[in-house]
Amino acid sequence: MSATSSTAPSPTTPETAEKDLILSVNNIEVIYDHVILVLKGVSLSVPRRGIVAILGANGAGKTTTLKAISNLLHAERGEVTKGSIEFEGERIENLSPNELVRRGCIQVLEGRHCFGHLTIEENLLTGAFTRKDGSAAIKEDMEKVYNYFPRLRERRTAMAGYTSGGEQQMCAIGRALMSRPKMILLDEPSMGLAPQIVEEIFEIVQDLNAKEGVSFLLAEQNTNMALRYATYGYILETGRVVMDGEAKMLRENEDVKEFYLGISESGARSFRNVKTYKRRKRWLA
Amino acid sequence: MNLLHQIFVEPFLFMGEAPDLLLQVLWEGFVSGILYALIALGFVLIFKASGVFNFAQGIMVVFAALTLVGFYAMGVPAILSLALAIGVMFLLAVTVERVVLRPLVNQPDIILFMATFGITYFLIGFGELIFGGEPKQMITSQLMLPEGRTNLEIAGGFVTIQHIDIAAAAIAVVMIATLGIFFSKTRIGRALRAVADSHKAALSVGISLNQIWVTVWFAAGIVALVTGIMWGARSDVSFALQIIAFKALPVLILGGFTSIPGAIVGGLIIGFGEKIAEFYWGPLVGGGIESWFAYIIALIFLVFRPQGLFGEKIIERI
Ligand SMILES: Nc1ncnc2c1ncn2[C@@H]1O[C@H](COP(=O)(O)OP(=O)(O)OP(=O)(O)O)[C@@H](O)[C@H]1O
Ligand SMILES: [Mg+2]
């Protein structure tokens, strides 16, 4: 299996993909605590079986976007006040996370959040909470998860709180898989992990995408890694999409290189300050 | 000198001289300890799963018992009354979830705590309105619980054991074991522990907090009903019973608010401790130790070990 995006399913841009989008977010606005406006009209879409990345610096609104989709915002006193979100063609803004997981859309939280006092295996089983297809099927899927993450099998009886960061990230992804998702919203899987482990995890994500047909929307600060595995990317800055395009294009874009891949250096930290920035032109054209 | 002798020597001599009395006191301590443990268990269940300190737990004990004898007094057969009382506890759980927890879910803990005061006074008022405020007899024999007593001849004397106390101990043990299995082996039990561990993560994997809250409040309601039956059988059923429920607080401080084993051990320590203190040291201060002993122990714990004996280990690694 190849690590580059060239062998991944053919990328679909929003313009061409009306046919089979698993997720489309249309111009949403998110407000926290009734006053703090954090997302100021974000639109994005994920083709079925695609891997799409949301990129951006700290506080850009990546997590907020994912939580708006998975409906975990309520628990943080956040609210989608404008726009719409569709999963498989149906509006989902008013569904509970429980119902959303049942329909096949699940989030893996930033910082993993495994259940520290439960064993790895128990953690995986909690992922199957919404399922009604019986313990044999659940058992089968657990085997599958262990095959994707052999390390979890070794640590199955360990309390999750005492496992390593990498193992916890695997546990969190494995736990999400146990719900039989069609789509996983993956928030900063690379956070705080050694490059090798990050690579291992992204390989598995790609594998899951190819073999199980799971679509991924992933939020990452690790732009380099994310653009190697994703087929399409959105760059978020202070609550707005400032640029989007196919991963290959983004990887080669001078501004992205400059600001997110750290390839050349410059004092400016925002796209909006960049004179050479072509987005506006493209948008207005 | 004389006083020191009275405090530190005589009681122990007395224990040695009359081991049958000591056994009697220990047994009494054990039984009330187990009942304290049950009340504390109800608190722990709710606290773990919803982070709410449920001030109403004590009143739930009285209310449950009152419902049971109330239905019986209306002419409903005993077993059916029991089933109805269980049904009422379920309704209570659903109502609390809908009316209190759901609307207040993102509010500060103190607001939820205050809301449980509301539940307390609602239950007192509602209970009195429907079933009347006068003390009632528990329907012990109708529920096929044993009555009477046995005098055991041991240690050169007699130890009197009430049969209902044996039943109480046995039922408490069975109930604790059942809860233990429920928590560790079942889907809902696992989800409950997951919620106790992290609300956020539990939500993210699709665990329905509403369902879990109904479940824990219902479980706490069943525990309250059983405690109410046992305690009611030893005295009578009235709102005065709630005083006993306050003993759960020192038990919790001792055991740690989040630990089920802690609730059990804490309950037993308080139960044994206050009976022994009352019997052997009570005469020195003119009695009444039983009513404040638990609180003194709790105070000492607050100073030296605020997390309690079994306060949950916080796993710090990320
Ligand atoms: N619960 C909240 N209440 C108020 N403001 C919030 C809340 N959560 C996030 N914010 C604010 O929303 C903005 C976006 O936060 P968000 O967590 O979505 O960013 P992010 O792109 O995920 O950043 P990071 O890379 O640091 O995870 C930040 O300015 C943050 O302060
Ligand atoms: Mg984030």
Question: What is the strand and helix layout of this fold?
Answer:
The complex is a heterodimer of chains A (285) and B (318).
Chain A: E1 21-32, E2 36-47, E3 51-55, H1 62-70, E4 78-87, E5 90-91, H2 97-103, E6 105-108, H3 120-126, H4 135-148, H5 150-154, H6 165-177, E7 183-187, H7 195-212, E8 215-220, H8 223-229, E9 232-237, E10 240-246, H9 247-252, H10 254-259, H11 279-284
Parallel strand pairs in A: 3-8, 3-9, 6-7, 7-8
Antiparallel strand pairs in A: 1-2, 1-4, 4-5, 9-10
Helix pairs in contact in A: 3-6
Chain B: H1 2-8, H2 10-17, H3 19-50, H4 57-73, H5 78-101, H6 109-131, E1 149-154, E2 157-162, H7 163-185, H8 187-197, H9 199-204, H10 209-234, H11 242-246, H12 248-255, H13 260-285, H14 289-304
Antiparallel strand pairs in B: 1-2
Bound molecules: adenosine-5'-triphosphate and magnesium ion (MG).
Low-confidence stretches of chain B: none
Q: What share of the residues of chain A does DSSP label as strand, in percent?
A: 15-25%
| Hetero ligands | adenosine-5'-triphosphate, magnesium ion
The total of helices of chain B stands at 14
How do the helices and strands follow one another from N- to C-terminus of chain B?
HHHHHHEEHHHHHHHH
What does this structure look like?
The complex is a heterodimer of chains A (285) and B (318). Chain A has helices spanning 62-70, 97-103, 120-126, 135-148, 150-154, 165-177, 195-212, 223-229, 247-252, 254-259, 279-284; strands at 21-32, 36-47, 51-55, 78-87, 90-91, 105-108, 183-187, 215-220, 232-237, 240-246. Chain A is globular and about 45 Å long. Chain A contains eleven helices and ten strands. Chain B is mainly α and 318 residues long. Chain B has one domain (2-304). Chain B has a two-stranded antiparallel sheet with strand order 1-2. In chain B, strand 1 and strand 2 (157-162) form a beta hairpin. In chain B, helix 3 (19-50) packs across helix 8 (187-197) and helix 4 runs parallel beside helix 6. Chain A binds chain B through residues 70, 72, 74-75, 77, 96-98, 100-102, 106-109, 111, 113-118, 122, 125-130, 159, 161-162, 165, 175-176, 179, 192, and chain B through 105-106, 187, 190-191, 193-194, 196-208, 312, 315, 317-318. Bound molecules: adenosine-5'-triphosphate (ATP) and magnesium ion (MG). Magnesium ion binds at residues 62-63, 110, 187-188, 219 of chain A.
